[in-house]
Amino acid sequence: MQSQKNTLLLIAGEPSGDAHAAALIKELQTMRGGLSVFGIGGEALVATGMELLYHIKDMAFLGLSEVIKHLPFIRRVQNDLLERARKEKPSCAILVDYPGFNLRMARSLKKMGIPVVYYISPQLWAWGRGRVKKIRRYVDKMLVVFPFEVDFYRQYGIEAVYVGHPLADKHAGRVPQEPKSVDPRNITIGLLPGSRKQEVESLLPDMVRAVRILYEEQKIKRAQIVKVEHLPEELYAGCLAASDSFIGITEEALHQCLPRYDAVFVASGTATLETGYYGVPMVVVYKVNKLTYFLAKRLVKLDSIALVNIVAGSKVAPELIQDAFTPQIAARELEIMLIPEKNREIRENLLIIREKLGETGASRRAATEVNTFIQNV
C-alpha cells in the first residue's frame, strides 16, 4: 500500500490516552507541516485539529460483560476505521494503550500493510504476557513510558524504546514547592471515581458513604468530587443526598484541585500516578462485575494493581479491591492518613513517583521517534 506521508491513523480510547496522544501530535506538528490525523480520541485531540471518527465517550467499556454487550458496535467501529484507512493510506497507525481494541486493530492494520507504532504499552507485564506475541507480530515500533518495560520486552525479543512519561511534561512546574500540611480543623477530601460512566456508577456511591462517615464523626470539613468533562453532572449529583451539602463537585483539572486535598479516594488507573506525582495520600479503590474480577484474578501476576504502587516499587497507597472496598473500611483507611505525622510521612514516600516518571520531554522524544519512523517506512 502506497502511503500518504503526512496522514496518520490514531486510536486513543481513554481520557488519559487522549491527553498523552494530543501532546505527542502537537510536538509532531512542529516537525511535519500539514499533518492530517484521523481516528478515535477526545477533546484534547480535537484541539490539535484531529478528525474524530468516534469519540472516547462512545468507547468506554468496563469489563468483559460490557464488551460482549457492545460487540456489534465495536465491530462496526473497527470496520469503519479500517475502511477509512484503506481510503486514506496513512503512513502509519499510532495506537495508544487501550489494548483490548488496539491489539485487534494492529493485526488488521498489519495485514493491510499499514505500519503500527504503539505508544504507551499495555500492562502486559502485569496481566497479559500471553499477548506479547501479538506485539511481536503486529507492532513495528513500541514506545514505552517506564524504564522497566524495556527489559520486559527485551526478554521476548522486542526492542522497545523508552521515551519517558508524558505526565512529567503535563505537571512539570505545577507541583507546590512546599507539601501541604494537615490542619485537623479544616480537612478537605477529594473523590476521583474514574473516567468511565461504569466506574463512576460502581465507585462513587461508596466513596460518598465513606466521607459521610468521616464527616459525621467530625474528622473532615468538606469533600469534593472531581468530575470528568465528557460525563454528565447528573451522574455525580445522583449519588448525593440533600444532607450532603459538605460535598461539592468540580470540573477542574487535577493540577488545579489535587494540591488542596489532604487525602483522596481514587479509582485505580492513571489518576493514581497523577495523585502520587502531587504527593497526595490516597486510598486506591476498584470494583468490577464478578465475572470480570474472576478472570482478572487468574491473569494478574502482580501483588498490586494500582499503578502508583507498581511504579513506586512498594505499597505507598492501600488498595481496596472488590469486596474489600466498603464505606466502613475505606473511611478507616483514610482516617489514618489524616494524622498529621502520618500524612507527612506518606507525602515524603510519594516523592519517588516524580523520580520514577523521569525527566520532562517525553512527548517530544516520542514525536521524534514517530517522525523518524515515518521518514523510514
TrEMBL record:
<keyword id="KW-0441">Lipid A biosynthesis</keyword>
<keyword id="KW-0444">Lipid biosynthesis</keyword>
<keyword id="KW-0443">Lipid metabolism</keyword>
<dbReference type="Pfam" id="PF02684">
    <property type="entry name" value="LpxB"/>
</dbReference>
<comment type="function">
    <text>Condensation of UDP-2,3-diacylglucosamine and 2,3-diacylglucosamine-1-phosphate to form lipid A disaccharide, a precursor of lipid A, a phosphorylated glycolipid that anchors the lipopolysaccharide to the outer membrane of the cell.</text>
</comment>
<dbReference type="GO" id="GO:0008915">
    <property type="term" value="F:lipid-A-disaccharide synthase activity"/>
</dbReference>
<protein>
    <recommendedName>
        <fullName>Lipid-A-disaccharide synthase</fullName>
        <ecNumber>2.4.1.182</ecNumber>
    </recommendedName>
</protein>
<keyword id="KW-0328">Glycosyltransferase</keyword>
<dbReference type="GO" id="GO:0009245">
    <property type="term" value="P:lipid A biosynthetic process"/>
</dbReference>
<dbReference type="GO" id="GO:0005543">
    <property type="term" value="F:phospholipid binding"/>
</dbReference>
<dbReference type="InterPro" id="IPR003835">
    <property type="entry name" value="Glyco_trans_19"/>
</dbReference>
<keyword id="KW-0808">Transferase</keyword>
<dbReference type="GO" id="GO:0016020">
    <property type="term" value="C:membrane"/>
</dbReference>
